[in-house]
């Protein structure tokens, strides 16, 4: 079932585990710091991207990621070292939910939608022959993404823009992987419908 | 070059194609197509203009979303702050 905000965690394998009995063997402080840096450093950009997708602004994403890192550091002794990205994304999701519960007005959903649109306004293309057309198309796609319903937009952004796997997106959204697959599929379908006036010419590949 | 298909069998293939095209065009599908499915789909796309156009359209949207990801890159200042925090946490371990 989708959206179980506020419920006890049931993260993916290797994800955040708060049960004391699950603590791994004792680690020295140096090893702890080293392991934390090794797990977290490569994921910082992904965390910021996902936080931006969730919050809609870089300043809010900064706050969520900073809180996430502090919480991850506090929980590192209970992390078994498997799937660090999923572990961090689970903490990030909870951190984001907590920030929403605190009622920060800059994290209200309507603002997210409004702020997403200009973020996608500019565009670039790699093929000189298609620069003009791609720019116009990208702007249309950005607008269409901004018009998607919240559930579909987040799923599409996480998978198709932030390039999370379906499992990772499921950890962020706290829904089953199959739900993410469905939302992405339906989100893409709605995008294509919204972009029907921009269908490519010809049918060959 | 594609050509038009006709008849009930082609409709069935078009219906099936529509269900698996996303898995064909995306790089990391949740469930990748089997080689047999891929072969069947590619054979269909070679003779069905409508489905081939749909595949092209899906690729184009995915490519545009991918380009949005480039604009979605975190500002350097945000990256620096996050990396600095990781270093602060691990250097000055309060635990």
UniProtKB/TrEMBL annotation, chain B:
Is Transcription regulation set as a keyword in this record? yes
List, alphabetically, the Gene3D superfamilies matched: Anti-sigma factor, zinc-finger domain
User: What domain of life does the native source organism fall in?
Assistant: Bacteria
The answer, when asked if Isomerase is one of the entry's keywords, is no
Keywords for this entry?
Transcription, Transcription regulation
Q: Where is the composition biased (Basic and acidic residues)?
A: 81-95
Where in this chain does the record put each Putative zinc-finger domain?
Answer: 33-52
InterPro entries from the UniProt entry: Anti_sigma_zinc_sf, Znf_put
Q: Where is this region: Disordered?
A: 69-95
Protein's name in the database: Zf-HC2 domain-containing protein
The beginning of the lineage is: Bacteria, Bacillati, Actinomycetota, Actinomycetes, Propionibacteriales
